Amino acid sequence: MTAYNSSLMRLLDERGYIHQVTDAAALDALAGRQVVPGYIGFDATAPSLHVGNLVSIMLLRRLQQAGHKPIVVMGGGTTKVGDPSGKDEGRKLLSDETIGANIASIRRCFERFLSFGAGPTDAIMVNNDDWLGGLEYIPFLRDIGRHFTINRMLTFDSVRLRLEREQPLTFLEFNYMILQAYDFLELSRRVGCRLQLGGSDQWGNIVNGIELTRRIDGTELYGVTTPLITNADGAKMGKTAQGAVWLNPDLLSPYDYWQFWRNTADADVGKFLRLFTDVPLDDIARLERLPGAEINDAKIVLATEATALLHGREAALAAEQTARETFAKGGAGEDLPTLSVGEGMSVAHALTALGFTPSNKEAKRKIAEGAVRLDDLPVSDPGLLLTPAGEPLKLSLGKKRHALLVR
Fold first, then answer.
1. CA-based, 20 to 30 A from 96: which of 145, 333, 345, 376?
2. pTM for this structure?
3. Residue 39 clears pLDDT 80, i.e. is over it
4. CB 31, CB 37: distance < 8 Å
């Protein structure tokens, strides 16, 4: 690890957030002498962010913990365009009303991780549609577009990889990197932003904003990117067979969120504790050294602490207690996700409705494998009609996924 002097850079370094820094020495010095406003942008393509966004959210939390100012930039403008980074196809265009509703829903998540207000280190949320929405095309091309060459834009991974795969890239999406660079310029002017943070795939976009602002205003800006967060098996962190791990509780229950973290591979426990919880580093070092089956105790700490940050301590402890009752005692647990089956529903449909399987075909395959149990008894018929009368029925897939079925 690099020897940093500022509390911000030491914190980011010690917890494993740093992949690239545009000028590490200058940023370290700046963070040591003043409050540094820093931003990350989030496009509003859904009513909730997901676990794949969590490292960015935690970056803003670390920024505030180190005495600096987080700026959450909601992409009300850029959501209308679409970031081509890592995509094989264009983004579905959303209406202004849908984008506005998504932003309002997403804000609730940030309020769990950041302290908002008017103070020097309080977080603020801004919408880039405030400046992008009023741009005039010809003046924008003349004043901003002349600082970008097509030659260089074609070298950025977000464009190059898409073209190499012979996937279409619209002119609309091609403009995304210019708009993101312009965001950094506007944030520098409007709120004194000096730092942009983001994933490693955003490096080119961040550098564009730094260079654009230097050319036009002469202001020095900085960038930090995180490494690609993967699981021990090399898969992108947060991708599951059941789809996105949502952060809003109406899309994924606190119990299922707790279970996601409890299912972490042994080799990832220490890394994820550093990135996604506030557990002290000395405690993490002890937990990741636990031998054999005792590493499960560290996974419980990870699951409970990560869930407490998002859903609150009470919900996290309830999820932990439900898990103990379900697994250790064979009970049902009060906090299990619940599905109403009305007058009746087949077991295959129930598995899919709960999100345990992505399709009825997959549900039937799991039943055929003997992985599905009803009140702890194996199920062999995918068409079995579930009609709970009094007490709820407990439906289980494997050893770790359970739900209650009610009428």
1. 145
2. 0.80
3. yes
4. no
